[in-house]
Known about the structure:
The complex is a heterodimer. Chain A is built from no helices and six strands.
Amino acid sequence: xxxxxxxxxxxxxxxxxxxxxxxxxxxxxxxxxxxSIPFGxxxxxxxxxxxxxxxxxxxPICVASRAIQIGExxxxxxxx
Amino acid sequence: xxxxxxxSLGFRGFMRPDGRVGVRNHLALVSTVALANRTxxxxxxxxxxxxxxxxxxxxxxxxxxxRGLQAGDARLQDEVLERLATHxxxxxxxxxxxxxxxxxxxxxxxxxxxxxxxxxxVMDSCGVQHAIDRTVEALIxxxxxxxxxxxxxxxFSSLSLALECGGSDASSAVxxxxxxxxxxxxxxxxxxxxxxxxxxxxxxxxEVVRAQSQSPAIAQAIIDRIAITESRMAxxxxxxxxxxxxxxxxxxxxxxxxxxxxxxxCKIGEARFAGCLGFGERPSxxxxxxxxxxxxxxxxxxxxxxxxxxxxxxxxxxxxxxGNTLAPTIKVCGNPDTLSRWSDGIxxxxxxxxxxxxxxxxxxxxxxxxxxRVAEGELxxxxxxxxxxxxxxxxxxxF
Lengths: 80, 399
């Protein structure tokens, strides 16, 4: 079952997963996901280079501490 | 934002002689200092045992420090306790001080107060039991006085609402906060007062403050408070703007404070700030007010309630028990997992927002309906559990 993912702002480079189907690997919009991403967590909606800002709500919320692939979980392990 | 019939009809509340309106008619017992707290606890539990059938316990508010506080902190402690004792949800109050001089000062300050209040000094008693008995007798007298208030028609504009969030996660940002935001737009349009606080959780939201203030001066006053808090937070060597949220927030998927801030700001809707208040300060106008408070919710709620908020709207992602015994706390939550596990602690569930079964307008209406039901006497879950603390911040060392 494809996952529910919300893009809060059109300028964002992450989506927020809003369901509990963590074993599924694609969103309803067709974004392929890498690994199990929990409810409320973020996935990259495009490749984000190391040092590039992570954008949510249309504003930079943090900076990628390493290159993040499209579909990858975005959180404290790869941001600062 | 148009005002619908529900807002224009208002609600049945307790009109006080000075025109303020309560949504509860509490008998409050305020102990002004820790030295008197145990006497107050004994008196309250004795009174509640005797009057158990009435099912309406004494509302106990306990101070901590008084002596040993430096000037600004001592003043704030007194002011906040006075505003709680004279809160519109209080029908009558007993104020219990330790010494006679403090009691005289309180009696002088409250002499012209229009609702019934009696001030006692523990040290005027002849023994511990006598101190308890005198306090119980004062409670019996004040209980008879508060019975003189009955509910009557009150305008919606007499409502003052505190906004709070706790256990924030991604669902807070897309469900409970924006639903409260929709309600705030309606409430402000209908002339109510809405107070939002937790200065640290505005860090990173400065552009929103600029865009949503009634004047550049108000925006600047708020932004100055945010800058002061951020510089204080930097003093312990951490960079909170980068990575701050609590372990619980991080587990729930929030990566940084800015992400948390942007989600939290959804709860002010499209309203514009009409004022910037210090801790516990009463606003001089209706509309959306910013209050400079610490981010710990029992403390920030204390400040907003001292300012006159009669009801607290509390947005949750993961569960947070926080509430306030004086201003009923309505818990609003959109996280389906939290809703299934903590149904005995949540007043408004909004899980249908996530899969699109309801929209934000309907969610805002649910919040509005809950506010009106609670304003007319429906108990919230935190009231049923007796959940709530009064915490007054201190800025300076004590001596």
